[in-house]
Amino acid sequence: xxxxxxxxxxxxxxxxxxxxxxxxxxxxxxxxxxxxxxxxxxxxxxxxxxxxxxxxxxxxxxxxxxxxxxxxxxxxxxxxxxxxxxxxxxxxxxxxxxxxxxxxxxxxxxxxxxxxxxxxxxxxxxxxxxxxxxxxxxxxxxxxxxxxxxxxxxxxxxxxxxxxxxxxxxxxxxxxxxxxxxxxxxxxxxxxxxxxxxxxxxxxxxxxxxxxxxxxxxxxxxxxxxxxxxxxxxxxxxxxxxxxxxxxxxxxxxxxxxxxxxxxxxxxxxxxxxxxxxxxxxxxxxxxxxxxxxxxxxxxxxxxxxxxxxxxxxxxxxxxxxxxxxxxxxxxxxxxxxxxxxxxxxxxxxxxxxxxxxxxxxxxxxxxxxxxxxxxxxxxxxxxxxxxxxxxxxxxxxxxxxxxxxxxxxxxxxxxxxxxxxxxxxxxxxxxxxxxxxxxxxxxxxxxxxxxxxxxxxxxxxxxxxxxxxxxxxxxxxxxxxxxxxxxxxxxxxxxxxxxxxxxxxxxxxxxxxxxxxxxxxxxxxxxxxxxxxxxxxxxxxxxxxxxxxxxxxxxxxxxxxxxxxxxxxxxxxxxxxxxxxxxxxxxxxxxxxxxxxxxxxxxxxxxxxxxxxxxxxxxxxxxxxxxxxxxxxxxxxxxxxxxxxxxxxxxxxxxxxxxxxxxxx
RNA sequence: GCGCCCAUAGCUCAGUUGGAUAGAGCGAUUGACUACGAAUCAAUAGGUCGGAGGUUCGAAUCCUUCUGGGCGCGCCA
Length: 666
Description:
Layout: H1 7-27, E1 47-49, H2 51-59, H3 63-74, E2 80-86, E3 90-95, H4 97-106, E4 118-122, H5 134-152, E5 156-160, H6 168-180, H7 185-197, H8 202-219, H9 224-240, H10 244-265, E6 273-274, H11 277-282, H12 285-296, E7 300-301, E8 311-313, E9 332-335, H13 343-354, E10 363-369, E11 374-379, E12 394-400, H14 404-416, H15 420-424, E13 426-431, E14 434-436, H16 438-443, H17 450-453, E15 458-459, H18 470-488, H19 494-514, E16 522-524, H20 526-529, H21 537-554, H22 558-564, H23 576-590, H24 592-602, H25 606-625, H26 634-657
This protein binds one RNA strand through helix 2, helix 6, helix 14, helix 21 and helix 24.
């Protein structure tokens, strides 16, 4: 459980502790979970306790009567201004706002988990055979944001991007290069040099090639079998290694992988390790896993039925109903009758490694340099000195919801092996796909059927080359923000304007991907993604820019404004209707750390995204209503400046967790 | 056939542990730049929370069922 110390939660705990005491002493009642909420309007207070409703039946008394009795015992409570009964029997608790504001402003919030976890987050994991598209962006942005949340909460996190460099998808582009284009290994090398000289991207080239190959397999009915055989032979050649197909695969997949890292770096997304399928194969991870699985009885050899001759396991979620005789036809095949292992089998071995349970490690080489750290890649033989990877206590796999079943099977295997603790800390960080609206598809020049046109969205498909490429989208966003920045800030030099445009574009894109909850299908539309108004990243960045402008004009800083606030009694400014509105901003800001805990507990970054937007919105409202720089009362001016400072501090903090920066001007 | 997910304002979505009058953005209408930056703010209109039962002091939220949609279920990866 993540714990962080901050005013809102601290006062909440104090209130609940006191309430428990009262219930124990007055009614001899112990309640496990005491519900606590926020009243619908801030004028009712900061906390609402519906406890009287629950007690009404037990005590055979009216809720309001019980609430009154409890209130009589609750007060006085340090830090609280008072309690009231409201509605049918709510107990509303009101904070001493002046005191709470001082504590929020002093803001020495330490966030330290009770038990820091060594966590492993795996995200992105794009097949290295084509350019990244919008769906991959959602994956990477969700994963990267979750990494930031865990790190903000004080956990140690390794970021992994799994690379399936020996799968069918890579085989398909190798078939394209060697059989459609009829290129040799040397010719492929030449082609890659030519592409680079022309400024063309290899991942874009393969995007089209992959679509062509997929068509080619199906194009000629008479040739179909033969072509599928070419594909299969190529796949096996790549898996085995030591031949030209494998060399072409390595060459191309490595180049495309570099491109993916570049694309993601544009959004501030970095990785620590790139574990590859090729090493999982060549270092024989499976053999070790197989021994464990056989020994524990998770896998058993099927003697009859359709899976005869295979090693199988009980499917996750399958009931224990084994009344009937005969083989479990629903079982999941892990080792085929020809002795080869399936995808889920390899995944089990890989996940044993992640938890440090396999008894074997990768070798490692340096692959990519970031500003302040190195990204390593798995290897058969590597460098003697390298960081320690694997052996995590908790893992998070950012994988789309369609892979729920295979993920569940891996967890099932871990549990069957007796690794129940690890199984409980295995999170399939599931999310829904990004699809295109029919209108968007038509804008991109795709021909769509009448049936598709009537749907709310159309699934993207790499095989058909149907989708929005990540770099194209980022380019479009930057072009749009650049235009705005250029016209708003002609006084700035080009380089500065460029930097600001990029930050706004990234803010817009990341917020767009984060504002939807994970299990909502995003129907992608350029109009919405390219919007900078309303509930968007730039809206929040603009709120921060306004606070920066205020401190610049006031000749001070946010830190100084908070220090200057120390001696001010804000109580008179936090009463009445205007005071309620301003207090709303303070309270929202104070709850930021609470949101961090909630987002980690629920693995849902969208809550923080919404929170940040709400805070920006309430500040914008405050900004319009209360003019800070012209305030005549010096004490009140300090208070208003502190309001802007607290907002800036918490908004920048929340935005940084979302991977969104706030420029000086925009 | 089995399993999982979804249905909330014209559109796109929030609604976390069951709690007070179901919220936001966009779009629409109207108003606000001689005040800290209008990528902004204010106001108005807009809802049988897919239907029907049930549990509960209380249901958009939990249970049952129906309807409509999506996804997954290979000795592919």
